[in-house]
Amino acid sequence: MPNLLEMPPEIMQEIVDFVGCPEIFTLRNVCHDLRNFVDNIKPNFRLQKLGWTISSETMTIDCEQNDKKYSIKYDKSDQDQFFKMMEPILKFQKSTLTIFGTTDQSPIPGFYDKMKRILESRPSPLKVFELSMRCAYQYQIQSILSTLEPGTLERIWLDGRHFESLKFHKIVGLEQWKSANTLHVHTFTVHAPLTDFGNFKRVFALFGSVDWEDLDSLREIFLSNPETKRLFYIYHWGLNGWDEWRESLGPAINEDDGEPEWRFRYPNSDRTLRIAEFYDRIVFESLD
């Protein structure tokens, strides 16, 4: 009976395509010849989800393939083994990931520089539908977001810790940011002009404070794009220029209500912009 290396290449290809992600790496670790074979054929893992979780003691690679979930855990001190596994996974992934995510709120020095170099070394940018990051700093987001394929990224989901401040000035100019449709920011307090989010169709975020001029500019962005249906939930700790904002809007359609609302007709369109004011948020919504 022939051993694996004596089988025809097309049979070996079928075997590699059939087994799951961890089994491919088991094959790679059998011997140098199998490792070279796997690396030469560059198998497409066809992962649906991929990410990593870093805790105080461990580093875990999490992936999902054909609706089966896999986790590969390493000691936090064993970064070399972690990257030996993660690098070929990232390089061999060809199909679009439904979710590419990370949970890492105490990043290791140099970790994201290395991850960025790996992603940039791919033959083409990694295709991701949703980027989901539970992190602590802007540079973590920038390192990953800047390497992704802009044309496939639809959603950006950011989680922080204890509503700490997060600036966006190094992110908002990225093509990946500009081309995404939906942004969720949770347990971060955003410090950035509202106009930096005007490219999105859906935004849910908490802002440290909001200036009335920013809100007025956002209203103009909505009204100048009648063909784009949008929904923004702007949570805030305070609004600067409350009286000026109310004056710019004019009388509310329910002035005596504790939650006033305004409606504005889009130019040359049957669509309406609804602005609603609540104690902790302002909602901008395009209505048909």
From TrEMBL:
Signal peptide positions are none
Q: Which PROSITE patterns match?
A: FBOX (PS50181)
Q: Which GO terms describe its biological process?
A: innate immune response
Alphabetized Pfam families for the sequence: F-box (PF00646), FTH (PF01827)
Q: Where is the F-box domain?
A: 1-50
Q: Which SMART domains does the UniProt entry name for this protein? A: FBOX
Where on the tree of life does the source sit, at the highest rank? Eukaryota
What's the protein name? F-box domain-containing protein
Q: What is the lineage of its organism?
A: Eukaryota, Metazoa, Ecdysozoa, Nematoda, Chromadorea
